[in-house]
Write a sequence for this structure.
């Protein structure tokens, strides 16, 4: 499923990552989930091969590429049945924000480890009462001498148990206006006053979700990432890659499910012909393939715009890509399960658990309705209802 708009280097990367993913496969991830542990072996090997940090600067141990390359890595691992959710968080969001806005010391401290997989960073924006609305975030930081004191709550934060630190979105008071403005802080997971609680999820994923309570967590001045007055710019610099990578996650999952269904439809024979010969079976699978390919094109556009430095253009395309990929993934998984009939619900074929997982791409990191709001207002110029 290569594409003619990709360079030979990108096609080679796609092929190499696909081979790695297939060596591990869906069974590996299912075992990790059953044992309640993260996919550490795959993460470590992907780091050693340079795939985790493919988007990070070469001078800090990365591959010197961009989100275009990192999205290929996640998509191909997903298509092989072994997606790494923390790719969305550690190198894509946190690695991008630190490489674009961090101090030299922050870059040297974090980027090489993020790139080779020996260090991992989670990302905390969502709050119980604010969702992802950065204007309603109540996690606040106040100055105490040279230090910061950070207090608040976060929810649905992925991978905190395996992370060395969390990049927390908080708010500080503007000395001139008294209004609160967003800021980003690197918070070590072993900091005093930092508490995590696992959320009991019905979603079968190797990476766990957490609620965080920050109770006057004391941070040094150098924990602040970037300019105190440019927090919103820094925040959106991380959120566009998050949407692009969520699209890659969804497209990979959709491709995996579709491939399983196509294989089954070719082999399963009822009344003398394979079921895939019947248009009622074949056409929905063809439609699912078309929708995944279209979503991938928008994802590639978004990644190219982002890597070219067009944050505004990338914002629009990243939102559209995430929307399209989420819809395509849900439909592909649903059709794959339906194609297998009763077998689609068995543990042996391993598709039923994807029904829940596929919905993540519709819900996170922002709901499809909020994306439709974005396109209504930003692209079409329609008035806001809120």
């Amino acid at each position: 499923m290569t594409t003619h708009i990709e360079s030979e280097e990108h096609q080679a990367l796609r092929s190499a990552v696909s081979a790695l993913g297939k060596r591990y496969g869906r069974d590996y991830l299912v075992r990790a989930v059953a044992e309640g542990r993260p996919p550490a072996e795959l993460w470590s090997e992907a780091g050693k091969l340079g795939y985790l940090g493919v988007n990070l600067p070469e001078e800090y141990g990365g591959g010197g590429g961009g989100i275009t390359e990192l999205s290929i890595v996640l998509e191909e691992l997903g298509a092989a049945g072994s997606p790494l959710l923390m790719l969305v968080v550690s190198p894509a969001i946190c690695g991008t924000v630190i490489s674009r806005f961090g101090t030299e010391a922050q870059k040297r401290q974090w980027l090489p480890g993020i790139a080779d997989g020996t260090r991992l960073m989670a990302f905390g924006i969502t709050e119980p009462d604010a969702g992802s609305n950065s204007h309603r975030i109540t996690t606040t930081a106040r100055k105490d001498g040279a230090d910061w004191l950070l207090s608040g709550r976060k929810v649905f934060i992925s991978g905190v148990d395996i992370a060395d630190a969390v990049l927390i979105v908080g708010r500080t008071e503007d000395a001139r206006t008294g209004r609160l403005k967003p800021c980003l802080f690197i918070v070590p997971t072993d900091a005093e006053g930092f508490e995590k609680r696992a959320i009991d999820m019905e979603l079968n994923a190797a990476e766990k979700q957490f609620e965080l309570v920050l109770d006057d967590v004391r941070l040094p001045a150098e924990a602040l990432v970037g300019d105190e007055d440019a927090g919103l710019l820094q925040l959106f610099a991380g959120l566009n890659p998050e949407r692009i990578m969520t699209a890659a996650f969804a497209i990979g999952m959709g491709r995996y499910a579709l491939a399983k269904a196509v294989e089954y439809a070719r082999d399963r024979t009822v009344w003398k012909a394979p079921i895939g010969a019947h248009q009622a079976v074949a056409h929905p699978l063809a439609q699912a393939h078309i929708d995944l390919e279209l979503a991938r094109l928008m994802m590639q556009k978004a990644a190219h715009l982002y890597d070219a430095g067009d944050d505004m253009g990338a914002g629009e395309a990243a939102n559209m890509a995430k929307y399209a990929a989420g819809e395509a993934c849900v439909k592909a998984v649903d059709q794959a399960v339906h194609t297998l009939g009763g077998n689609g619900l068995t543990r042996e074929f391993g598709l039923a658990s994807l029904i829940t997982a596929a919905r993540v791409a519709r819900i996170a990191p922002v709901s499809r309705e909020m994306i439709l709001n974005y396109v209504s207002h930003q692209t079409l110029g329609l008035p806001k209802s809120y």
Remarks:
- The chain has a mean pLDDT of 94.
- The longest strand covers residues 147-158.
- The radius of gyration is 21 Å.
- The chain is about 50% helix and 15% strand.
